[in-house]
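Weekly modeling sync, notes
Attendees: S.R. (lead), two postdocs, one rotation student

Agenda item 3: backlog of single-chain predictions. S.R. asked that every request posted to the team notebook include the full sequence so nobody has to chase files. The rotation student volunteered to paste the first one in as an example of the format we agreed on. Action items at the bottom.

Example entry:
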Amino acid sequence: MADYKDYYKILGVNKNANDAELKKAFKTMARKYHPDLHPESEKAAMTEKFKDINEAYEVLSDKQKRAVYDQVGGAGYQNYARGGGASSAGQNPYGGYSSSEGGQNRYYQYSGNPFGGGNGGFKFHSTGGFNQGDFSDFFQQIFGGMGGGNPFGSMSGFGGGEEDSSADTRANLSLSLHDAYNGGRMDLTLPGGKSVKVKLPAKITDGATIKLKGYGDRGGDLYVTVKITPQEGFRLEGEDIYQTLAIMPWTAALGGQTQVSMPDGSSVKIKIPAGIKSGQKMKLSGKGLGKNGNMYAEIMITLPKTLTRAQKDLFAKLADIS
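Predicted structure, as returned to the notebook:
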């Protein structure tokens, strides 16, 4: 027998949580434990945690599944487990259970498939890209396989016998500005734990959507929306990238050349015009994101941390003749 899963504890909510509280908790937990936001050494553990979070939300966000789960309860499930489970294959796991409440099975109304058999009254809506088969043995014990077969058919649902069409799924992908600027092939871990190689174009923009054909629910497509995270030293505004460029007073006065760092770690040499002032911007056309983004270097005139005697003398002479 599978161990009982406390879905409320997994999402960190109480048993009276409403839909809004469940949704908020799910989003918070999903962001915290998404495998792609953790180092490679933690991905396997995070994938299992992420799967549990999705499984819990799948049940608690569905009124009918939640009612079944609440009626089963932890104590009832554990009593059933200690009794050795169902006595025969294909039997409702609660069909032979006798509680102390008058010797009657308090799960009697769920005889067979707890959702009414192969033509039950609601559809299975997978969460976060998971399918029913991805969830735990506990989930399968309560919600699947009650009639010797998959009560969900071929993941097409069973709402009065009307099959769902393929379902497209949407998800977010957090990328550093460095990775977004570089592009290239990346290994993505899908919500179900499967990995897929995706080719990202260089300078992909925040909010851009990538279509992964066939990776959605029930054969649908997965649409991944890129969310670019901040990178130290750079500020992103739309497709334009801004950074502060520190220059010495003599470069500002006389002009010269300096290097501007790019988000991918490279650098570009630019010419500083004589007489430039702090706050002015140098535009590097086409060095931002997308097709139309630019890089802007915002000038900040600064002094060396320490001045040599010769430098101090020169500044003193400059002050005398100014």
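Discussion: group reviewed the output briefly. The chain is about 30% helix and 20% strand.
Action items: rotation student to repeat for the remaining queue; S.R. to check formatting next week.
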